[in-house]
Structure formats: C-alpha cells, structure tokens
Amino acid sequence: MQIKFYNTLTRKKEEFTPISKDIVTMYSCGPTVYKDATIGNMRTNIFMDTLRRTLKYNGYKLKHVMNITDVGHLVSDADEGEDKMIKSAKEQGKTPLEIAEYYTNLFMKDLERLNIDLPEIICKATDNIKEMIEYVQKLIENGYAYETSTAIYFDVSKLDSYGILSGINLKDQKAGARVELDEEKRNPYDFALWIKAPENHLMKWESPWGLSYPGWHIECSTMGKKYLGEQFDIHTGGVDLIPTHHENEIAQSKGCTGKIPARFWMHGEFLLINGGKMSKSLNNVYLVEDIVKRGYSPLAYKLFCFTSHYRNKLNFTWEGIDAADKSLIKLREAYAKHLQGEDALSEEEIKEYKTKFQEAINDDLNMPVAMSIVWEVAKNNKKSKQLAELLLDFDRVLGLKIDEKTEETVQDVPTEVLKLLEERNIARQNKDWVESDRLRDLIKEKGYMVKDSKDGTTLEKV
Ligand code: AMP
Ligand code: ZN
To answer: Which of 89, 259, 408, 437 has the most C-beta neighbours closer than 10 Å?
Structure first.
C-alpha cells in the first residue's frame, strides 16, 4: 500500500519509497543529556516511534540512528553561551560525564516506559570526535569553512541555497543582522563547526586547531554520514530544529558531499501545557515520572498523544491524561472480552478494518483516524478472537501493550480533584497566590496534598 509523508523540505505530502528496496535508513536527533527529558521531548520520541512502527508494519526493515548529544550544545542554538552539559555539571557539582550518564539512563528508562521501539544504532557525540574532526577538515578543504581566533566557522555565503528548509532568504535577513559576539565572523548566519576551548574548559580534545570541542550541528552530520552514508531516507526531529540545527546540517552536508543528507525531513509539533509553553518559571514542566507518580500508566500519555496529529500542537492537561488512562483500561478490557468471544466475522470484514487502519497510518501517520478504527474494532458488538487478533496486530503500530492488564496499578485520583489542580496551576501561572492557596486547601479537604517542587507539582494522598 502507498505511504505518504509530509516532507518539510518540499512543504507537501509525498509518496514515500526508500532508496534501497526494503530497508529504510533514518536519522533522529536525540536528546542533549543535561537535564530530565520532559513529556514534551517525549512527544517527539513517540512520533519517532510511530514512524518506525508504521514502516515496519508496511514490511520494511530499518536502519535507524539516534544520537545522544553529550557535548557541544550551547545554551543558545545559535552557538552562544555556555555548553549545556558543562553548565549542568557545575550546577550539580558533578563531572559532565556523570551528568551525561545519569540523564542518558533516565532517558532510556522513559523510552522503555513508553514502549518506544529503539533505533538500531544509538551513538554518543563524544565517541565520534575523530570523525567530526575529519568532517570539519573536509569542509575547510572544500572551501566552506574558515578559522577565526575562537572557532572554525561554516561560511553560509558559499552555498547558493542556505535556508531551504525554513525558507529564509539570506538577502532579506542581512539588513537586520543581529549583533555578533564574534566580530571575525564573515556572515551573520555563519555557525561554529568547531570551537576552540578557553582555558579550564571541561570538555576538550586535541585537534588540528588546538584543544577544542565540536559544535552541535557537526555531530549529527558526522554520525548520519558515518552510519547511514551520504544520503538516507528520513531525518526527524522537533519543529524547533528546522530553522537552525537542521538548516545547518543541510549546509554541512552540501559542503562536504554536495548532497542534502535526507530525502524526507519530518518534524513533530510541540506539546503545550494549558495552552502555553512548558517552563521552569511557570512550574509546569512535567516528566513521565510525574504521570507515573499520579498513578497513571505511562502508556496513557502515549494514547493521549494519539489524539492529535503529530504535525499539530497538542495541549496537555491532567484531565486529558485522566481520560486517556481510562480509555487505555477500556481498550485492554475490550481486547480481553474479544479474546473470550465465540462470534465469527467474515474475512472481508476483518480485511476492511485492516485496510482502513493501514490507510490511516500510511497517510502521514494519521493517528486520530487510526484510533477511530481501533475503537470501532474494540466496540464491535460481536465478541470474537479474530477481533482480539486484529487489535494485537494494530498494537504493532500503537505500542500500547493492549494485551496487558492495568487495573491494579491505577490509583484513581477523582476528576474533581484533577480539575481543582488544573485551576490551581492556572492561578499560579497568573501569580494569583491567594486563589492558588485557596485551591490547595480545597484539594486537601478532598484528601490530597499538593506538593510543589522545582520539578513541578504532584499529588499525594493525605
Ligand atoms: P531540549 O532538551 O529542550 O533541547 O529538547 C530536545 C528536543 O525535544 C527538542 O529539540 C524538540 O525537538 C523536542 N521538544 C522540546 N520541547 C518539546 C515540546 N514541548 N513538545 C514537543 N517536542 C519538544
Ligand atoms: Zn541533530
């Protein structure tokens, strides 16, 4: 069956066929392991998981790479500020290596809890320093890079098409060019490939340019080329990566090999919290751990993500998770009932469901439509082992562990309490502390203690 994906590069849905007949090559930008991954980060990973599973459902094998950024991602994506890893290490009194190990382990644990199908290759930036240096040397050789007293920069003016992914036009941008920290840069959009380490810098390597460390963008170009070759099928990431990181990856590849590295560029939209951004200052940064702490199955969050197309924004609320958790239980109960059923359906009926489901996922991963078919099957009045089998077949894409039981693990926080908590979060966002305290007391009367910490708000039974 035909597969169509929306390609950010061409700004349209296109038929997908891989370069090699039955193996899809794919690269996903992975986490920078300096802090906890949020449920926002995890939405992007759930999108990656659904993509992998859809390709497998269509019979493809996969060679999929995800990197772990453990050096070189500066506080601003545009090469400014401190390295995120080093900043976090200093704040926590640990070494960057300890920080990387700690947050990589947490990230992997979250992938497991969300039943995310792991990429075939997961690689760390710090294991690929030699290859990155070679890549930068090649860019210098090809005339696309230059050295200043602080870094090796990519010269975007050497390309005829910098900005093709986000559609920026350099000529329009130059007039309002921003203030540059490095006056030796030739063009405002030039970006650092390799950065010379100041004295006492914690992570640095010997290189032809002295002790130094990689820029963030070169890491992905290098690992993509090393493991997947000069051109592969799909590149994924969150939408925030389009204008800088992915644009720069394309620039580097064009400078090195003359090619755009991936044919399809697919980007997942952001998760919002109460209609706005997730941020520490609003105390609304939630982790998978917070979902688990409130007694929900982490897979309820995955099911919640399926309520929206991956290219649309999705608004997170605890009520939404509560509803998703209940739906997950219903889905598993429906599966169990079908498994006991003795009714028979015709082959055509089963085939029609299967075709409709596959059409939905093959239509740019349309999970809301795919889920409506899943529910049709789950709620079918006939109770039949064939339908149980069909649900299990769909679960190859959903990864919701439909054949598991959840009842014992669910602690039912009443919807009424969740609603009050939601209102309190909004009051806090509006800095209405009187209202926030009133709601906290009201929640306490209902039997739950609200606990605020720097990592967010949790509920505990009194
Ligand atoms: P960060 O750790 O904030 O750099 O995020 C890592 C990646 O996760 C980002 O590049 C995004 O692609 C993705 N991401 C971050 N926040 C969100 C969000 N709220 N919703 C969806 N994806 C996100
Ligand atoms: Zn990347």
So the answer is: 89
- Kindly tell me if the per-residue pLDDT of 408 is higher than 60: no
pLDDT tens-place string over residues 162-173: 888 988 877 665
Regarding whether 171 and 34 lie in a shared domain, the answer is yes
| Domain match, 15 and 159 both | yes
Residues with CB under 5 A from ligand 2 (ion): 29, 220
How would you class 405 by CB atoms within 10 Å of its CB: exposed for 0-12, middle for 13-18, buried for 19 or more? exposed
| Helix 39-57 with 298-305: angle, nearest 10 deg | 70
Domain count within the chain: 3
pTM of the model: 0.86
C-alpha to C-alpha distances, 427 to 21, 282, 435, nearest whole angstrom: 55, 10, 6
Shared domain check, 390 and 421: no
Query: Tens of pLDDT along 73-131?
Result: 776 666 667 778 778 888 888 887 888 889 999 999 999 999 999 999 999 999 999 99
Cα 28 to ligand 2 centroid, rounded to whole Å: 7
Q: Which range marks the domain in which residue 195 is found?
A: 4-268
**Distance (Å) from CA 87 to ligand 2 centroid:** 20
d(CA 190, CA 183): 11
